Amino acid sequence: MSGGPRISFSAIDSALSSLKNCQSYINSGMDVATQVALDLVESFNDAEDVDNMEKVMLEYATMDRELNHYIKAFEETINQVKREKPENLPDLENLAQEKFLEMESKNSDSDFQENEKYMYFKDQLKEMKKQYHDKDTIEQIDEDIAVTRSQINFICPITQMTMKRPVRNKVCGHSYEEDAILEMIQTQKQKKKKVRCPNMGCSYVDVKGSDLVPDEALKRMIDSQNKQSWSTLDT
Length: 235
What we know:
mainly alpha, 8 helices, 3 strands, 65% helix, 4% strand
């Protein structure tokens, strides 16, 4: 048996597992921050409160990037060590730290565009601000025209009915009723065919389930209009 140093890879795997658990906490925090920010816009809170939530999301995205670098540095270090002979084993801590610092030195703001939860937050917040902050302008237009525009935005291009659980296509930006678009994708998949975006005039010809994210901003607008409609009927 070799008398060289031994490494407990199970202990390292356990440490990696702990890091990945931390990542799930960050993801949960980002989900909560997104909901809070949308609540603030919907309830017409001070813009400073919404800005603070944007800063919180940026901090979460920064932590997520740093954690990803730690995980990648550990994984690369483990793979390198497994290829080394026992007598040539490097200092694991220093090697991992070097790899981590090298990744961190390449950080840029464009990295956040690869963070799906952060980009989802930005997209949904933009939609909510557009809908709620533009209300005063819309109300100055002929009321019938404004209502018609809203109803068109709320209609699923597949079912031709008001959406209940809208999902947004990350690629082309169009929204559909979740069950309807998933059923369409499944049906075409069985026929080994691609799904063209059902929104009239859209040129996107390969809609996939992975393209879809919940359209929380649109759902809130639909729910708000439904409440107003019921309120009008009750009076």
